[in-house]
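User: Design a sequence. Structure:
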């Protein structure tokens, strides 16, 4: 996964343009899709799982609701953020209709989703028996879908690179009776072996893509939609992704220390 903070600077440009009377909606947000430290607008976090808010900060208003039935008045939201969520939503079309309904005429939408036909998401689905991903997206089809259901137009987009960080959490999975048999076996492997597999995938996919011009290292995409967008622009991708927290960094960052978690990485310069 990739952090909005570093792969979505345009999102922060939009957030910082909002004032105290404006409202941002963070959908399927869990603990929060972005930092609110410098944000002046009010932030409403919506998730259908009450347990998702246990790690949320107190600055956000937290609402338990489903995306296909947003308890928000029509035309009252300035920005909707839907970060790595739509792949989990079974009632996708009603949820997109609700996003279009609650946005103001000047409202904007940020969305990040995985490439449902890429290596990263395919491996995730295989290891975690779906892992809650119920929708598969292709880039152009997804853009057309969002535009048709919300009335917005694509303004910017960006490739999101993977660290295959979901592998790193396997050794810490609980030894629970309902844990899938595949994961029960994997969690017993030496921790170093799993970390090594992550490192090989991280480095190997980037080398392979450089040789063969493939996209095996790409997790998915980030999209910025607004009402009056002209021709869509592509933001430069952040190939360097922290192995530990998944935050993306520009290739000219000048350091191998992650700006989010502070951990040092070894494979950024591939």
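Assistant: Done.
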């Amino acid at each position: 996964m990739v952090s909005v903070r570093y792969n979505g600077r345009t999102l922060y440009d939009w957030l910082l343009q909002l004032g105290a009377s404006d409202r941002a909606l963070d959908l399927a947000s869990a603990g929060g899709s972005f930092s609110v430290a410098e944000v002046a607008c009010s932030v409403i976090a919506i998730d259908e799982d009450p347990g998702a808010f246990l790690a949320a900060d107190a600055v956000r208003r937290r609402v338990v609701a489903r995306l296909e039935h947003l308890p928000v008045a029509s035309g009252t939201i300035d920005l909707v953020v839907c970060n790595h969520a739509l792949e989990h939503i079974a009632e996708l079309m009603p949820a997109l209709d609700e996003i279009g309904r609650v946005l103001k005429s000047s409202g904007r939408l940020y969305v990040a989703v995985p490439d449902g036909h890429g290596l990263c998401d395919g491996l995730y689905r295989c290891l975690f028996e779906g892992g809650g991903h119920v929708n598969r997206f292709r880039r152009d089809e997804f853009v057309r879908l969002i535009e048709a259901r919300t009335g917005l137009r694509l303004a910017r987009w960006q490739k999101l690179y993977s660290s295959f960080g979901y592998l790193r959490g396997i050794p810490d999975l609980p030894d629970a009776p309902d844990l899938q048999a595949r994961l029960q076996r994997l969690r017993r492997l030496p921790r170093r072996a799993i970390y090594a597999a992550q490192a090989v995938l991280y480095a190997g996919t980037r080398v392979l893509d450089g040789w063969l011009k493939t996209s095996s290292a790409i997790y998915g995409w980030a999209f910025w939609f607004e009402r009056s967008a002209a021709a869509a622009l592509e933001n430069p991708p952040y190939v360097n992704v922290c192995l530990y927290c998944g935050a993306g960094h520009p290739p000219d960052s000048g350091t191998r220390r992650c700006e989010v978690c502070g951990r040092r990485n070894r494979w950024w310069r591939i």
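The first strand starts at residue 23 and ends at 27. The beta strands are 23-27, 42-47, 61-64, 77-83, 103-114, 153-161, 218-226, 233-234, 240-241, 248-249.
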